[in-house]
Each structure stands twice: as structure tokens, then as C-alpha cells.
Hints:
The complex is a heterotrimer. Chain A is an alpha/beta fold. Helix content of chain A is 33%, strand content 28%. Chain B has a single domain, classed as Orthogonal Bundle (ABC transporter involved in vitamin B12 uptake, BtuC), CATH 1.10.3470.10. In chain B, α1 (23-43) packs parallel to α13, α4 packs parallel to α6 (173-197) and α12 (287-299) runs parallel beside α14 (336-358).
Amino acid sequence: MSGGARVEVVGLSAAYGRTRVVESVRLTVEPGGWLAIIGPNGSGKSTLLRSILGFHPHGGQVRVDGVPTSGVPRRERARILAYAPQTPVLPEAVTTREYVTLGRTPHRPLLSAPRAVDRQVVADVMDRLGLGPLAERPLATLSGGEQQRAVLARALAQQPRVLLLDEPTAALDLGHAQQVLDLVDRLRRQDGLTVLSTLHDLTLAGQYADRLALLSEGRVVAEGRPADVLTPAALATHYGARAEVVAGPNGPTVMPVR
Amino acid sequence: MTTTAGGTRPQTEPVAPRWRHRPGLVLGGAGLALFAALLAGIWVGALPLPPGAVVVTLLDRLPGIHLSGGLGPTQEAVLLQLRMPRVVLASLVGAGLAISGASYQGVFRNPLADPYLLGAAAGAGLGATLVIAYSPVERVGPFGIVPLAAFVGALVGVGCALALGTAAGGSHSATLLLAGVAVAAFLAAGQTLVQQQNTDDLREVYGWLLGQLGRTQWSDVVLVLPYLVPACVVLLFCGRPLDVLAVGDDEATGLGVHPGRVRLLVILAASMATASAVAVSGLIGFVGLVVPHIARRFVGGSNARVLPVSLLIGGAFLVLADLVARVVLAPAELPIGVVTAFVGAPFFGGLLWFGARRR
Amino acid sequence: MPRTTRSQRLPLVALLLSLLLALTACGGSSSGSDKAASGSSSSSAFPVTVTGDNGELKIDAKPEHIVSMSASATEMLFAVDAGDQVKAVDSTSNYPKGVPTTDLSSFTPNAEAIAKYDPDLVVLSDDLNGIVDSLKALKVPTLLLGAAKTLDDSYAQIDTLGKATGHADKADDVVSDMQKRIKAAVDSVPADAKGLKVYHELDPTFYSAASSTFIGSIYSMFGLKNIADSAPDPAGGYPQLSAEYIVGQAPDLIVLADTKCCQQSAETLAQRPAFGTIPAVANGKVLAEDDDIASRWGPRVADFAASVAKTLKG
């Protein structure tokens, strides 16, 4: 692990057909930092993430450590950027171990079998995520939280420098959500990963991320430290929500008001 | 079912059978099954042949070995000219159809896909029907006209589906599937029309459609090898890429793979294998659909394992089906497509039933 | 609605009556003209009643507009010298040379198309598409002479057609000629030919004809054993065999009835895998017969018997 990379997004725009969904987004994430992208439903968060990864055609540029990703071949890119989607497609009748091993694809020729180093990395990653006892179980038999961890494990098996997570806590209850975010934070600090995630839970976003970017109608309307971005005014304007923001021990806490 | 504080949980998690952890064992077992099927196919037939003499005669054919099996000239001719090519071709065709079916199921992420999905069957059927009805010649050079037309027809069918699918909306699997359905329906309608206009040829057409290995010669084996074998080899290598494709186009791209290219390669190779199989044996159904499911019961869902195991089991399956076809109504033969359907459908039903109950 | 008054009804009735009269007059006049034309020598043979598979048919006068929908019936009609009376034959009828072949289909017969020829006798071999009933509704005299099962059936049909067309004497001659020729053929074959095995091939997918069929009965007359008989399911007399079975049975005589449809010959036979070991192929006892002769039950069956005899004698 060579430590996190610096990610810069410059003037990124993306559209679905004629509708522009993301408009001139500019972001920077420092190596080893955690940027959480927040915003109301339909603000374009997922599209932004997918565009950064190159899944969606877009205008503008994405640079990793100063190098534009568009010029980088796919396999190379897969060794730098890892993606854990919100609703992953879980293949049928595949064991957890086989699924996590898919993460090693960018590191070996496509046609060859997993080698010893691949098996080692997979075993390592699964241990860290507590998936050891579930290794030989079919993926479909895992609970929601366990599956989320498996997806994370697959992303980590890629040994990336940047981890992009799309709503990693979407289907999880509070306890499991905290578990996953703690894990990501720990890994970030241990491996020096750069993390870019979308989060809908504002308090969790404020507690775990270094910086927040508020996306509204495709544009970045606020960017900075959590306390600076999460303000009642911002919530009222962009979410149409009534809330108070209280400073907590780990970051601002958003308290909805009836 | 035991209850815990959090609610009910299944008492035991389903335990994967022990052989799922030993794919090598399954592969070996499948190879053995194929070998046994080949032996059975050579030993059994309308003309009884002593098994020992059969083995000796075959060994004698190996370079450097000179043994006398004691078979008369008629018996030897039946063994070497009729049974051997037939059994060999059955195993090749079965293997080709099975691995194509497994590949299509992998590419479309659909367990009901079969090798005829993208219009290969409809195209081959139309080609064969046109030629049976209208062609004045029986052979073109070394090729029989019906196999040639079927081969070309199958490839044209797939080509049309691919063209239509990519024109309609990129290489997404759902679009391709729909394009395949449309092309198949159109070509099948054309075939029905030609059949209607030429009712005298109906028996020959149906005989071909239902699958037949009854007139297999060594020349058919030679004809099919240069297309079938390379296609199957390519497909064997596509197991791992298909596993990556199984997580969806986006995630596969994120893992450094070109899903569109992999899909195209797999479809082309599988279509080539299907077209060559169909050219020499007609439309044999169920093999491409059922055999991959059998393979999955033994090695799980990873395509890297399912494809090679399907290849071997498919060969064994069709050799045994051909055996049944030859023996059940001897000396007449059942069309092999009927046997695979009669055997395959209940088998498939049983797999689903017991699989569901276990869960 | 106003009721028609008596004065309006009368013209209506008159119209209907006259239409009715006109129709019956038409019907009556055509039969009348037939009567007038039939003044030839065999007018004493009519009216005659003949029996076909569809029952009895009373023929009032010598038919001059015969339509034959059966290739075998066509051959029989021309053999009994009724050729001049035949106006149209179906698309499969091609013997003797010069028959008035049309594109009438015997597989999908169309009553209207047949009626176009204004027939006074239609001969069929199959009742497909309800053709017999349709022709009955059109009041066309129809004779259904189905496929013969035995030689005697064939003779009976020739007699029937002879009577129906006013050539009963000629029909008798034809029948006795056939009987003489077939007997001569059977007698000409050496005694050791009895018990030889024969394979009759209908098409290259190994459909054969067993002894219970018409053509199979010819082989029985020669005392030949038909390998299709031991097929466990003769399927109405036309079982499908397999290559292995045929080679294993080692027939001494092979008769190919698929020379025209499927281009089979003694050469293609020899090229089939393992067929070279069959005695019939090795000894050249292969009869490549015209498909038509082998599948019809007309007078040419005598030719067929002669060919079989010739091949057996080598």
C-alpha cells in the first residue's frame, strides 16, 4: 500500500440524455483524507461518484496525484480507484471468498488463476473485516450487513489508493452503520487510503468525514469542514428541512425540529 | 427453527456439499463420466458386439500396437465407421452445446439462457429448411449443403441479433436478449412459411430440426473440428472474465475489465461453437440449458469452474442420450432432440425441486 | 315495415319460380347433351355401377371429362385405353408421357379447382381436405380408389376403372398381362434366391417398407425375406431402420426407391460408411428403381417385378 492519493475533480459535468445532472463540480481530497458528499435526493451524488470512476461519460477532468484518469488504462485505474456500490450486484451461488477474490482482478492477467499472493491478500482483508468464518458460505446467504462488509472487502482487495463508497450505510441500522464507518476510518488511518463517499445521514457524515461537500441540483454549494457546511440555513435552503445543528464531541450533530 | 432475542433464525445455515471445495475432484469425476459414457456408447448398439473384442480392436488402431480383436469385417466396419464417429461426434456436440449454454448463462446473467438464444437456432432452421426445400444440389465441394446452410444460417441469425442489439442501445445484455428474441421470431416465421409452401419436404425438415446423429460419418467429425474445438478453447478461457462480468458492467469496469469486449468475444465464440454443432447434428435442445445447472450443483456458481465441468458433462450427457435414442426403439431411432427433452426436462425439474426444498 | 301487397308479391314469386326453372333447366340440359354425345360403340356398357372406397357410384354414360388426382389411377386409365377421356391429371401424375398434367394438388385438393375442368368423373386415391364431400356437394361423380394393399387390390382397381370408362375388356387384358409377366419374373429366378434378404429403401434416413405393404408383397412373391419385418415396431408397415441394423442384417438385395427424390444410387450406397461390407453392395445386387414405379400400384408393378428378377439373377 503506497498510501492515499490526492484526488482532484475539476469542472466535472454529467448528463442523462438531455438533462444535466452534475454541473461544473470542483472538489479536492487530500491524500488520506475523507470527503463525504452530501445532498438531498436527486442532487446527483451517485452520478458524480460514477463519473469520477469513469462509468459515466462526463465533461471536465479527474486527476489522481496530478495525473488525469482519462489517460490511464482501465486496469491501471482499477489499481488506484476502488468502488463499493450502493446496490452491488451479487453473483449467484458464489462464495464470499470467491467474491472477494474478484477484487484481485486488476492485479493479475485476466485469464490466469489467483496466485498465492492473491490468496494472501484476500485472506488478510477478510480477517480484518471479520469475514473469516463466512468465507465458504454462499454470498446470498449472508445478512445485509455481512454483504456490505463483503463488498468493502472486495474493494479493499484491490489494494487501492482511493476508496469510493456509494452510500455504504444505506441499508444498515445505526449499530451496523457505525461498525462499517469505524472500520473504514480505521483502514484509512492504517493504510493511508483516501476516501470519497456519499452519505445521506448528515450526523454520521459530520462525525466521520474530514470534509463535506454539499451537492444541490448538481452543483457544489458548500464545501469545507463539517461544522462549516452543516448549518441550519444550508439545511433549510437545500434540503427544505427544519433542523438545529449542535456541536458534538466528534462533529456537528443535526437535530431535526418538528 | 430456534428463536433468539433478535427473532427467528434458520437453525443451520445450508452447508455446501463437500465436493464444492474440491473442484479438481469434480473435474476428474466429470472426465471419468465422459470416458464411461464413450465406452457405453461404443459397446451398445443395434448390432451386438463383444465388449472385449471392441476394446482390443480400438487399441489396435493406436500406432505401434498390433492386436487382433477377432471381429468380422462387418462388425469391424460397424464399429469403426458407424459407431465410433457417431459417439465421438455426440461427445463433441454435447460438449460444445453445454459450454456455449454455460457461457450464455454467464454473459446474460440468466440461468434460463441457452445457446440458441440469439437467433442461432432460428437462423440454422431457416437455412436448413430453405436448402431442403429449394436446393437442387446435395453437396458443395466436400460439404453437404444442409450442414453448410445451417452453419451459415446460425451465424447470420446471431449477427442480426448483435447488429440490432448494438444499434438499439449499446452492448447491454437486456437489449441483446430482446434483439435475439425479435430476430428469432422473424426467422422462425420465415421458416414456417417455407415449410408451408413445401409440405413434401416436411418430414426431412422435421427430421433435421429434431436433431439427428443417425448418419454421422468421420467426415462430419472432421468438418466440425476446426470450428468447434477452437471455439471451445476460447470459451474455456473466458470463465474468469465472465466471473468478473457477473458483478455488473459498472463494477466490472471498476475492476479494470472491458465488459462490452468480453461479452462480444464470449458471444462470438459460443455462437461459433453452437453453429458448428447445429450444422452437423440439427437442433438438439436442452443440453445447453440443463448441463450447466448440473455442473453448478457440483462446483457452485463460479464460471471459471462451471464452464470446464459443463464441457465434460455435456459430452457425456449427449453420448448417453444418443445411446438411449438408439436402443429404446431399436432398430428405429428416436430423434435425439426428443430424448434430451424427455430426459432433460424432468431432470431439470428435479434439480429445481430438490434445490428449493433444501433451501 | 309495410307489408307487401298482393300485387307486389306476385312478381317476386314469378321471379323466384323462373330462377328455379332456369337452374333445373341448366342441370338438365348438360346431362342431356352428354347423352347425345355418347353414341360410341361401348354405349351398351352404360349405365354401370362401380364400387370405390367411397361406396357405389352409378355412372350413366361414358365419361369424357375425367380428372385423375392419383398418379396410379392415371397410369391405369391410360393403360386401359381411356386416355382420350382424361382431361386433366394432378401434378404428381407423370406417366405415360404426354398426360395432361396440371398443377392440381393431390395433397391439398381444391374442389373448385377440380370443378373448373367440368369433370364427369373424378378419381382420387386419398380423401384429404374433405374433398369427397366437397365434390359430392358439387354433384361431381367421384371414385375413391385408395392405395392398394395387395396385387389383387390393384387388379380390382384396374377392372373398376375399365368398367367405369367403358373399356372393361381392355382392363381384363391389362390384368392378365400383368399376372403373366409377374409370374414369369418370379419363375425366372433360380430356386436358391428364395430366403435371400432384401432391404427396400424409401429415403436416405432409412425408412423401409415391410412385407405388409404393397411393394413388400412383391418381395414375398419372390420368397425373399424383408429385413424390415423384424423391426419391433413396423409402424403401419413403414418402419425407420438404422444404419447399424441394416449393415448387421447384411441384405443380399437392396432396392433403392429414393433415386429421384434424393439422388441415391449404387455408388452413393457404396460410399456410406460400413455399407461396403453388405453382400448386396459387394455383389452388385442393387436395384436403383425409379421412385414412382416403386411407390405406385399401377400396371408398372409388373415392370418392377421384372427388374427385381433381373437384379436377382445378376
